[in-house]
Write a structure and sequence with these properties.
This protein is mainly beta. It has 3 helices and 18 strands. It has helices at residues 78-85, 181-184, 217-226; strands at 5-9, 29-34, 37-44, 52-59, 64-70, 89-92, 107-109, 112-115, 133-137, 142-146, 160-164, 167-170, 173-174, 189-195, 200-205, 229-235, 243-245, 273-279. The protein is globular and about 45 Å long.
């Protein structure tokens, strides 16, 4: 069996913890899974008048680290990535090739480029906006930035770059979103954000299912802003949008992955990489 590659994504440590907590929008159920790890969930039609299944993790970087785990060309379910890596929680990662495997977006971890952007793919596989921004770290701070004019390889000051898109918020500002159908239609979505207090926000919303219609990109942008994000980025979604929480006693999948393709809640789509949360030692 191929070994999972597991990389540490350094994060900025906030000293004044009391200033970190986000204020969840009305209607969300809040559960503290452990100190520094809070789960918010909403299931029903109380939000914007349509059925939704939304799950959000708020993570304290002083207590937990974010890691990228990749099977390289081997696709695996999020549950498999999480269990094999000793995660306490996880969401799916950036966009990937469902046939050949591997990410189709620029990815660099610990100074090593593991994937480059596949601009040569047809539109059904890749859209230009899908690597417009990235979750980056210079070893001290984690943030979300736009792609430099000379491309991601020129961003040599960052040891870790995980590109995706479209970007939703940068420096507290809502960014323009194009009107192509990928953005205007409701789909399952996954997003990662950073709050002003340097907390990490990981969000999934299920889509194309009776219990959850998903978000348009502007709706996802609004939700990340409501959770206090000053930087936020859309990751792979649709049938890939999945969240796993290890603290739950039985079914650890809190999203409904793959419903739009006739799959059950327990039948996950295999993905190329995942973002996992692990305790700091």
């Amino acid at each position: 069996m191929n070994r999972i590659r597991c990389f540490l994504l350094p994060v900025f440590v906030l000293v004044i913890e009391s200033l970190c907590f986000c204020q969840a929008p009305a209607g969300f159920i809040q559960r503290q899974l452990s100190p520094g790890l809070t789960w918010y969930s909403l299931e029903g039609d109380t939000l914007w008048g349509v059925s939704q299944c939304i799950n959000v993790l708020e993570v304290d970087p002083e207590r937990y680290a974010l890691r990228l785990v990749s099977g390289r060309e081997e696709l695996k379910t999020l549950s498999t990535f999480a269990k094999e890596s000793g995660a306490v929680a996880a969401v799916n990662g950036n966009f990937f090739h469902t046939v050949e495997g591997g990410s189709v977006c620029f990815t660099k971890v610990d100074g090593v480029i593991t994937d480059t952007t596949r601009y040569n793919l047809p539109p059904r596989w890749f859209l230009d906006q899908l690597d417009d921004a990235a979750l980056v770290s210079d070893g001290q701070e984690i943030k979300i930035i736009l792609c430099p004019p000379d491309g991601w390889k020129s961003a040599v000051q960052y040891s870790t770059i995980i590109s995706a898109g479209p970007p939703l918020l940068i420096d507290g500002k809502l960014l323009p979103i194009s009107d192509q159908s990928f953005n205007t239609r409701r789909y399952g979505r996954t997003a990662v954000g950073i709050t002003a207090g340097h907390r990490m926000i990981l969000l999934t919303v299920s889509g194309n299912a009776p219990l959850s219609q998903g978000f348009t990109m502007p709706e996802l942008q609004k939700m990340m802003s409501l959770f206090g994000c000053v930087g936020a980025l859309n990751f792979d979604g649709g049938s890939s949008a999945t969240m796993w929480i290890g603290a739950l006693p039985e079914n650890k999948l809190v999203s409904h992955p793959g419903k739009g393709r006739g799959k059950s809640q327990h039948n996950e789509r295999k993905v190329a990489n995942s973002l996992i949360i692990i305790p700091r030692r």
